[in-house]
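[Solved] Which block belongs to which protein?

Original post:
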Amino acid sequence: MPLKSKLPRVGTTIFSVMSKLAQDSGAINLSQGFPDFPIDPALGDLVHEAIRAGHNQYAPMPGLPALREAIAEKVERIYGVPYDSASEVTVTAGGTQAIFTALGAVVQPGDEVIIVDPAYDCYSPTVELFGGKPVHVRLGGDMKFDAAAVKAAITPRTRMLMVNTPHNPAGTILRDADMRDIADMLRGTDILLLSDEVYEHLVYDGEPHASTIRYPDLRERAFVIFSFGKVFHATGWKMGYVLAPEALMAEFRKVHQFNVFSVHTPTQHALARYLREPSHYEQLPAFFQAKRDRFAQGMQGSRFKLLPCQGSYFQTADYSAISQEDDIAFAKRMAVEHGVAAIPLSPFYKDPPPGMRLLRFCFAKQDATLDAATEKLCAI
């Protein structure tokens, strides 16, 4: 039977490809973004307690009230902004589901959505699935936000701008000036904003996280996406949440209820209790900055050139002093011949810059893993 694909240009993600190659070749996996160290035992104990207490049936569609209240309290504690837990907070099955649902709620056929490349690989296909048109602009050559390029991409058909800070894969952050530029270019328009902030607590060197939440002109038009899995080392739990004004959230929930309806109930009970102790997330910047610095120190003897890493748990590195192979070929050869798997950056672009020679390494790993990987990388 003939079948017309809705995503004819999409194949297996580069994350799956490189992780499988790492497994098959026995390479150290610094490709896919997940920690190789355990979660806090206290959080695991809370999940077990919730299961034993019988919290094993459907949670309310928007999320457990106690968890939504804890999220709203956390947001107000950090950003000084109140969100109504009943109407402006929804618990999701991770950040990707939140992004998919937000786009599904507002993108109509023919709408344009501006995506800043390199971009997480779910953005563009999701826009296409809902009949929208992805409009790609690039970060600047230094991987910084290019406000002029984004502004030039706006047309009367622009429905949404998608931004990501801290940035995956670049490891850069948006700062106050960037957010003010975005507010200026969207002011007076009906353009919505999707702000992917799943690495909100992974910002380094004393920099503040310039969340969309902090900017009233942006907050009133934004879906803001977060991830428990990223910050609490439990990516396999697929737990996240979205904040949005009531009118936007009402549309979000219309799609959410027919997408996943609700997410894992015992984990929601556990997180509602775990969030009451701020130290669980306040210590994360120092924890991951130490790993960033350990990886960078280990790489000093290599021929890789590390780009600035201001946030996330990803380090981008230029390998042009080693090889002129394209990044996918080099990444595959590095895994097989040198025993370290990384992610090439070209799959994060619609049109990669000519001659780009960049890889992304995940440093959310045990110290022994990082040390073993850098020793191999320095030998290339």
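(Second protein starts here: sequence line, then its structure tokens.)
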Amino acid sequence: MSKPNYIREELRLLSEGATALQQQADAIAEIAEICTAALRNGHKIIFCGNGGSAAQSQHLAAELVGRYKLDRPALAALALTVDSSNITAIANDYGYNEIFSRQLEGVGRAGDVLIGLSTSGNSPNVLAAFTQADKMGIRTIALVGRDGGKMAAAAQTTLIVPAETSAHIQELHIATGHLICDLIEKDIYS
């Protein structure tokens, strides 16, 4: 296959995924409402994920703390993926599977929302964070792909994006995350 044809095929698959994602508009709106309610009640949105999903966690937290579209006060959000000292100390002392749950134990509070991103839905450290969140009264949301993996059942709310490859799953996750940030801003500040 020529490079231009390969590019067209990849974009066709991504476009089909985005079109299919429209069928989950109600679920995306529900996630935004859960987050908006938490923020209005003085709680925060916490993100976690590995690799590209870690980068997306940081990206989405920054959209809320900084701004997405509106000039407005900062919203309470953070990513558990950014503190290299915490991550390496926890991984060294407790194991890599505890890097998010241990941080959540320290910074999370009942009423917060934890959004875990994973292309497979089977990330052990995100699953451990969901278990910790349940113990603490923190609402859990999974943004996953493929069949949802173990996270689909572990989270209180799950959105499975319609894609199979990690790249397309991540692309649909960021589109979904942007929609959630957009709706949160509009609900609180418009």
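Accepted answer:
You had them paired correctly. Confirming on the second one: The mean pLDDT is 97.
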